[in-house]
């Protein structure tokens, strides 16, 4: 199942996620530790973000 990395906007497979973070009762998956760290720094910004385009941090 594909999920979206809320930081960079990349779609990833759950099983391939580098990191999973639970925030406000929702699970977020990340393509890399880097994205996960950014999310941890500012979870509100990313958790509330919707149709934004990522900056392509990776891959
Ligand atoms: Zn990412």
UniProtKB/TrEMBL annotation:
Chain segments annotated as coiled-coil in the UniProt record: none
Record SMART domains: TRASH
InterPro entries documented for this protein: Ferritin-like_SF, RNR-like, TRASH_dom, YHS_dom, Znf_C2H2_type
Cited Gene3D superfamilies: Ribonucleotide Reductase, subunit A (1.10.620.20)
Residues of the C2H2-type domain: 29-53
Family annotation (Pfam families): YHS
GO MF term set: oxidoreductase activity
PROSITE patterns: ZINC_FINGER_C2H2_1 (PS00028), ZINC_FINGER_C2H2_2 (PS50157)
Name of the protein: C2H2-type domain-containing protein
Lineage, highest ranks first: Bacteria, Thermotogati, Thermotogota, Thermotogae, Thermotogales
């Amino acid at each position: 199942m594909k999920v979206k990395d809320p930081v960079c906007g990349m779609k990833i497979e759950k099983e391939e996620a580098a990191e999973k973070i639970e925030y406000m009762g929702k699970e977020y998956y990340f393509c890399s530790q880097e994205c996960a760290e950014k999310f941890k720094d500012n979870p509100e910004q990313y958790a509330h973000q919707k149709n934004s385009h990522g900056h392509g941090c990776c891959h």
